[in-house]
Amino acid sequence: MSLYTPIIASDAPEVDDKTIIQDDSDTKLQAPWKVLLFNDEIHSFDEVILQLMKATGCNDIEAESIALEAHFKGKAVAFTGKFKACFKVMGILREIQLVVEIEG
């Protein structure tokens, strides 16, 4: 007695040669991503604000709001956009060793 059942060609599912397998990796890179800024006790508010302005292009009021949220809540969304843009922003924020990560 056999422990397996052989698949006969007529039992196999039909495969349509025109089926397209879509690679969604590019779509994932386009999806909304976030740069999270975490609170630390090393940098002054002025350092963080200036670096946020440099990295994101936001004004001083927006940068101060992000810095205060990170300070009081432990983290804040510093930037939202496509993955490549977030990666660039993260690199600029890390120039002064700010603690950041990308979340998608």
Would you mind describing this structure in some detail?
- The model has no long low-confidence stretch (mean pLDDT 85).
- With 104 residues, the chain is an alpha+beta fold.
- The radius of gyration is 24 Å and the shape is globular.
- It has one domain (30-103): 2-Layer Sandwich (Ribosomal Protein L30, Chain: A).
- Helices cover 42% and strands 16% of the residues.
- It is built from four helices and three strands.
- It has helices at 25-30, 45-56, 60-73, 83-94, and strands spanning 33-38, 75-81, 100-103.
- A three-stranded antiparallel sheet has the order 2-1-3.
- The longest helix has 14 residues, at 60-73.
Question: Segments where pLDDT lies below 50 for 5+ residues?
Answer: none
What multimeric state do the chains show? single chain
Total helix count? 4
User: End-to-end span in angstroms?
Assistant: 52 Å
Output the strand order for the largest sheet: 2-1-3
| Mean of residue pLDDT values | 85
In CATH terms, what is the architecture?
A: 2-Layer Sandwich
CATH topology (fold) name:
Ribosomal Protein L30, Chain: A
Just give the CATH class.
Alpha Beta
Radius of gyration: 24 Å
Portion of residues in beta strands equals 15-25%
What is the number of domains?
1
Can you count the beta strands? 3
Alpha-beta content class: alpha+beta
Q: Which sheet architecture does the biggest sheet show?
A: 3 strands, antiparallel
Task: Give the name of the CATH superfamily.
Answer: Ribosomal protein L7/L12, C-terminal domain/Adaptor protein ClpS
Overall shape: it is: globular
